[in-house]
Design a protein that fits this description.
It is a single chain. This protein is mainly beta. The protein is built from one helix and five strands, in the order αβββββ. The chain is globular.
């Protein structure tokens, strides 16, 4: 077995997060400030998922005080404490970059019906 693949497999997260592009998620992210650590919540819409294995990432977009904020997180990062899906979105494409140009209600993704 390849030594790099073996090291990466050891660092993979045991539990899987069940989310897709278009979902609204709340994640608790561990932040270090000086010598202290705290949890910070980040809530927004998943606009992109890319990569595979240990390098799998997802980008979450939110609008705060009229400014769009996008953050990219590693799925297997030990800094992510928890991830909860609050709304299932109905997306017909893999990348939701068009949300960057929209404002207000137009920037929402329709909710998926079961």
């Amino acid at each position: 077995m390849d030594i790099i693949k073996q090291i990466e497999d050891e660092q993979l997260r045991k539990e899987n997060f069940d989310f897709r592009v278009g979902d609204t998620v709340v994640l608790d992210y561990r932040i270090r400030e000086g010598g202290k650590e705290r949890l910070q919540k980040f809530e927004g819409t998943v606009i992109k998922i890319q990569g595979s294995g240990l390098r799998r990432t997802f980008t979450v977009r939110r609008v705060a005080y009229g400014t769009g904020i996008e953050r990219t997180f590693y799925v297997h990062s030990p800094r992510i404490e928890s991830l909860k899906v609050t709304r299932r979105g109905r997306a017909r494409r893999a990348r939701l970059y068009y949300l960057r140009d929209r404002v207000g209600k137009a920037a929402k993704v329709k909710e998926k019906k079961n």
